[in-house]
Sequence to fold (222 residues):
Amino acid sequence: MNTKALIAEFMGVFALCFVGIFAIANAGGGATDLTGVAFAHGLAIAVMIAAFAAVSGAHFNPAVSLAMLITKRIDAKGFVGYIIAQILGGVVAAVLAGAAIGTDAVKNGTPALGATATTTGALIAEIVCTFFLVIVIFGSAVDKRNSGSAPLYIGLVIVAGILAAGPISGAALNPARYIGPALIGGAFGLDAWIWFVGPLLGGAIAGLLYDGVILKNEPEAA
Fold:
């Protein structure tokens, strides 16, 4: 197993969760707002992709790794290793954030249902916004006909997803973004399945669509 790739995956999710938790804490204190939270997440992912795309492919998300697995871009052993590294990154980020600003802030920084949201609405939001995320990843990073600015585009689709779905589902779009803070902040509840099923389903659909339809019979594509 590629240790360097696992370290890269750990670092990417660590950055996403650590920055995200702090940004949400600042929003609660009036230092920023939903736009600031969205850009904090998007910028964290963009810079981590720029740093580690050549090392691990910069999945930083079990939903992305699942899409790569079912389209045969990674094998089962690599998939399991990536998932473990991603989850550990989120857990360690939540532990350090809790030590810095308290476990209540970590709990508040865990994606959750909005005040007027339903489980169905949140599930749909997670599926659709993760679908967009993985489509952009395949289009900008996997398909070599469109190369050069993947970190920017992927960061921006995360910004858009949080602006759209943040008030509904918390816009995790990533099981690892949920697991670490939920575990350390004590936020696991009966609706936790939303942040597993939604992103994984949305990512899988996007990967199958792009690989099976858009890339089909395209010799210049990766």
